[in-house]
Amino acid sequence: MNRLGKYEVVGRLGRGGMSVVYKVRAPLTGRIVALKILAPRDDLLVDLAGEDLLRQAFFDEARIMGGIAHAHVAEVVDCDEEGGHPFIVLEYYAHSLGTLIGEAYEVERPSRTISVAKTTRYLRQTLKGMERLHFAGIVHRDLKPFNLMLTGDDRVKIIDFGLSRVRGEERMGIKGLQVGSPYYAAPEQEARPEAADERADIYSAAMLAYRLLTGRLAVPGQGDVPLPSRLRPDLGAGWDEWIMAGLAPEPARRFATARQMRSALEEVSAAWQATSAAGCRFEEDAEDGEDRGPAVVVRREAKRIRSCEAQTEVGLDRLMRPLTYRPHRLRPGGDRLVLDPRAGLLWQGQGSEFPLDWSQAGEYVEQLNRQGWAGRSDWRLPTLPELLTILRPPTVERDFCLPPVFSRAIHWLWSGDWCSLRQAWMVDIVECFAERLDKDGTASVCAVCSI
């Protein structure tokens, strides 16, 4: 398939039970957007619901999203149909909470845990988006990591309203139809989806919090659900109470509203941060001129690393985290520079200060060299092994205590190494893992050169 209406198809992003999502290029502007087209996977569903009902529900989704203007709800760009198949055009995002935690198709498998600071940020934004939806009478009913996209500047955007209820109306009233995703759907939603109210989304948000902080799912019916602090001791009782209140089996025992849940989150986060900050341990700087430990030698030339080879090539575990963290002694090098004497590297500390796609990242480095930035003309995109040398194990102390030598605005950093024609490698400098990223996605750039 080369075109859908006026849009040029660049690639396929994903497949759901009701639709297929493509990455497409808009005419004239050349903007990359996401196009979601109605294409039910199961013919039985078409027979039960009827094509007219499915089409109507699909167009309703576009109207729902088009009627909500909010910082944490995805924006509809266009809506049309091609060959009798309706489609919705949305903003394109390369990141999601699902990719951030490395959630697999076998959703029961452990995922990456996320720092408390980042988790709090994402939960706060998700709850703000939920407040706006609930004000409009919309119950999402399918909040999960892959339906929470992340913009290039690290903001949550809620997507996929195909299963939502609007002002109590059940648009897909098919007896026995499962509404929502296993584990993230509230118990009452699985039993009677037409009766689920805003508190079903509260349950999903609490399950999301459990997942982000522990890397696991709270699975009822398999014995007592472990308190989050049993899986991650640094959390404490405050987080336990907040999450387990949202996961209460009976809706009446949960938070009554998303705003109430967010207010309680602010209190828990503030108390936890004060307690954690009180126990900080600063790492002592080496004395001037002292360089402890052996030199670190890593590959300087960019190259292709296939997905199947990455773990053994650069030493990563199943969740793409370093098997070992190399000791380093990063030092401010003056004028927004960072010096790593062990690896013999000089880094930009602030970097591009705005997200770029991979092609633009290369252009940014070329511009640095033309300008002779910082008196150098040999800047380049770092290799994946070079990026891994600047990572530290993610700890509570890292969240609050270690004075940063890189800008706190940086989250994802491009590598010069690539995976395929469409994907290159990047590193999450906050959560300390490597991952493939669509070259049309965005990340920051911290150029590097050899000393």
Profile the largest sheet.
Answer: 6 strands, antiparallel
Overall form: globular
Indicate the proportion of strand residues: 15-25%
Mean pLDDT metric: 87
Give the helix tally.
13
Number of strands: 18
Instruction: Trace the largest sheet across and list its strands.
Output: 1-2-3-4-6-5
Poorly predicted runs: 282-290
Explain what this protein looks like in three dimensions:
It is a single chain. The chain is α+β, with helices and mostly antiparallel strands and about 450 residues long. Helices cover about 30% and strands about 20% of the residues. It has 13 helices and 18 strands. The strands form five sheets. The chain has a six-stranded antiparallel β-sheet with strand order 1-2-3-4-6-5, covered by helices on one side. Strands 12-13-14-18 form a four-stranded antiparallel β-sheet, with no helix packed on it. Strand 3 and strand 4 form a beta hairpin. Helix 4 packs antiparallel against helix 6, helix 4 runs antiparallel to helix 9 and helix 8 packs antiparallel against helix 9.
Give short descriptive properties of this protein.
alpha+beta, six-stranded antiparallel β-sheet, 451 residues, globular, 18 strands, four-stranded antiparallel β-sheet
